[in-house]
Amino acid sequence: MSDHGTTPRKPPARTWTRLGPGALSGLLAGGAALAVAELVAAAVRPQAGPVVAVGAAAVDRTPAEVKDWAIRTFGSDDKLVLQLGILAVLALFALAVGAFAVRRRRAGAAGVLVFGAVGAAAALGRPDATGVTDAFPSVLGAIAGAVLLYFLSGLLPAPPRDVPGEPWESGESGEDWDRRRFVLAATAAAAASAGAGVLGRALTAASGREAAASREKVTLPPPGSPAPAVPRRAQVRVEGVSPFVTHTGDFYRVDTALVVPKVDATAWRLRIHGEGVARERTLTFDDLLRQELIERDVTLTCVSNEVGGPYVGNARWTGVRLADLLEECGVRPPSAGGPADQLVARSVDGMTIGSPVEDVMDGRDAMLAVGMNGEPLPFDHGFPVRMLVPGLYGYVSACKWIEDIELTTFDAYDAYWVKRDWAREAPVKTQSRIDTPRPFARPKAGTVMVAGVAWAQHRGIDRVEIRVDDGPWQEADLAAEDSRDTWRQWSYAWRAAKGGHTLTVRATDRTGEVQTDQRTRTVPDGASGRHSVVVTVD
User: Three-state DSSP class for 64?
Assistant: First the structure.
């Protein structure tokens, strides 16, 4: 008896005995929900899966500065990091829901349904949503997870019955529970989830085989306007300098697609419509290939490229001149009295990119590209068709997986990135980069070759200069120019003295504009400043 005349309460079962298996149950339920969702998404479409849908929604709502930081920090792995982060949050949520389900079995199962509601809302809110079926993966996955959690939590020991007001929805109290039955059920659930996940991945891969087969069947016709041969001296003979033509596998990729669209070229269509379009058209892939193709060397630059950054590459592109297609539709640029000043390109994944109609139709080689470095476009770079406009940053010109072109005005419509605080118009800034020596290199005293690349697409590079520490600017040797739409390599023979030194580069374009020394970040219209490296000469 206690001092108050009551019988002492029997000590409850150890916390870990109840909460440990409960948390494990939640984790298994979360895994089952994701696996079933993956399986259903394979039947609906991969972009409707909860991780992809929630990830895409997160990308859409992330401030431009944070998004830019992610690209700088993680590079092309930014999407993988995002998805791993989502999975980590889901795992923690599942652990908490599972532990909660030990005391409140029905409420715990309802917590899994919350996961489904979030995924369904994200999928339905995507600009490329195809209808209510996009909610099916998240909803059905959540139902499977909730049922599993309700079942597993019923096998666990419950809290002590002598706690007044304690709700009872779990199994028998105390330590008297069938561990063997729980372990068998948990193992079976894990195995079934793994099987569903593997099957879902296999079906998703199979759904892209038709698109892959359509790409394999593509034979690009010879261009009616082939690119001239790259000048022999366009590549400087200095070790460490980027290749003049970027290998397709090394070309940078920056976009918001968590799942690369696999578009069947035989089913692809492009619609051209909008203000000032006298003759609306819908083109097939074969229609494009029957047009006269042009082939051009063009350097592309991402607006997220920091000063001296890697998000710039040069390739040989094959495609149809965009101005010709627009003229066939009766489109006139604003300078000729056309009513539309913005061309909005839409991708199959809902991305919108706005380009100035004047720039597209001013005579430069803006194109709908179907080939890259002599081959059909890779899926990562927009197969079957992508758009590019020399001299403009990618976010206002380089729509991948394009399926729609609408002529409108900048006042009437803000494209995806403009809604996120980026500038409406963004010509590529005059920039240069030191490729060698690398930062913190330790070259030997004597002649050290300093070399790199400079670019000012559609204007061309006229001069590159190097400065050592605070000394005078010294003119570098320019490699041969391919065209004003490509980058230009340069080199400088530096007589290096022992000690620490800072090397700085600047370029001057054909308009006479000298690369500014004023440092700015990438938002809203591209980084500016001069690239420098610090080395120690031994």
Answer: helix
